[in-house]
Amino acid sequence: MTKTAQPRRFEPSAALTGTLRIPGDKSISHRALMFGALAQGESTVRGLLEGEDVLATAAAMRAMGATITRDDDGTWRIKGVGSKGLQQPDAPLDMGNSGTSTRLLMGLVAGHPISASFTGDASLSGRPMGRVIDPLTDMGARIESAEGGRLPLTLHGANPAKPIAYRLPVASAQVKSAVLLAGLNTKGTTHVIEPVPTRDHTERMLRGFGADLEVSTDGDVRTISIHGPAVLQARHVEVPSDPSSAAFFLVAALLVPGSDLVVENVGLNPTRAGLIEVLQQMGGKIDKLDQREIGGEPVADLHVRHSALRGIDVDPAIAPSMIDEFPVLFVAAALAQGTTRTSGLDELRVKESDRLTAMAKALTLAGANVEEHEDGLVIHGSGGTPLPGTAGTPVTTHLDHRIAMSMAVAGLASKHGVEIDDTAPIRTSFPNFMKLLDEALA
Ligand code: S3P
């Protein structure tokens, strides 16, 4: 479905103040719906992200037999199909903009004796699916895809799937999860070997749903083993706020003078919290208040104040724990004192857009001093002087929600404002972004 573009201008802003609650974590929300839909019994979810990506997952799980409803108080109820109960969908599954829905559901379907077709928008249809097609083919699935391993594709599940030991060739939680989900309904033990740790919500939550799953570590290398076939039991899931969405407000408050903001209940799983560490290294004043655990995930309230940031060399080893936060980090770097160097970021070229090129062009248009390299950006910061802004030519977001929100933040910290060609994609991950921004500025 092509949506009408929603251009918008983000003007230099007043300080961000008060206390905000950001919507639920996108990665955890997808998994709660998927695992609830596979489990025996009725699961409930509080704090589910009601963004388009997650709603695409809900629609797909309904199409495969689960009953998913929302109570008036915001609690989601999922009646699962139980083990081996996944049904063949009647129509292609429309994944919209969502790579997570596509890759994880491909894994699920691969382990069941059903077929499903997957379609998506222009951004998703340009993204590589070969990284999941390869291991799922090894497990016995048959996949017919558009050229270059892209959507649209049709996947015929294996009957039965073969357990494999798969070493991830790219640091990707989506690929790891696809193989583990195919292994759920497979007799025997499926192993995923992860040379670089990536977000571990699948492992944590599958265990919570009762799957027999082990994780062993050897230095940085993790091996995740799932014993199939697994029978999942319904449970309750509390979803913390998404650190990747909180990131836009953290950086905005660091950059806009006078800001003093508390962002509540933010998920701080160590595989997701890299941005906070990097911003603190740059001199950002961010304090973690009331650190606690919710639903098996570490959480805190984050107190952030306007800060004079310094450029740094970002250690590429931290990249997987902040992979979605680089666009907004580049904005912070554009206003820091001195140079920020990033490297090892090849994966950013295959996200919802090529985020290295998209951010280099957008920030340059807004007046920042940016060098684009093959695997990262080098940004010479303004030392806190507001960026000039875009002067009439809008930045191009390429259907990428995070480019839109990052450049919105750049607009708040600019002299004359930043114009964005299309803010509609923000609904994929952060439907009330504008409302919360208005609240923080009120
Ligand atoms: C996600 C994993 C990451 C991330 C994406 C969500 C997940 O993708 O960029 O937004 O929920 O597993 P990759 O696995 O491609 O790194």
Q: Write down the overall geometry.
A: globular
The CATH topology of the largest domain is given as: UDP-n-acetylglucosamine1-carboxyvinyl-transferase, Chain
Count structural domains. Answer: 2
Poorly predicted runs are none
CATH superfamily of the largest domain: Enolpyruvate transferase domain
Query: Total helix count?
Result: 13
Q: Please write the CATH class name of the largest domain.
A: Alpha Beta
* Global structural class: alpha+beta
Q: What does the main sheet amount to?
A: 4 strands, mixed
List cofactors, ions and other ligands: shikimate-3-phosphate
Give the termini separation: 35 Å
Written account of the structure:
The protein is an alpha+beta fold. The chain folds into two domains: 8-24 and 240-441, UDP-n-acetylglucosamine1-carboxyvinyl-transferase, Chain (Alpha-beta prism); 26-228, UDP-n-acetylglucosamine1-carboxyvinyl-transferase, Chain. Helix content is 30%, strand content 25%. The protein has helices at residues 26-38, 52-63, 99-110, 122-125, 130-138, 173-184, 201-208, 243-255, 274-281, 326-334, 355-365, 401-412, 433-441, and strands spanning 8-10, 17-21, 42-46, 67-70, 76-79, 93-94, 115-119, 142-146, 150-156, 165-167, 188-194, 212-218, 221-228, 236-238, 260-267, 285-294, 297-305, 339-341, 369-373, 376-380, 418-420. The chain has a four-stranded mixed β-sheet. A four-stranded mixed β-sheet has the order 4-5-3-14, covered by helices on one side. α6 (173-184) links the parallel β10 (165-167) and β11. α1 runs parallel beside α7 (201-208). The mean pLDDT is 97. The structure holds shikimate-3-phosphate. Shikimate-3-phosphate is lined by residues 27, 100, 172-174, 177, 199, 323-324, 347.
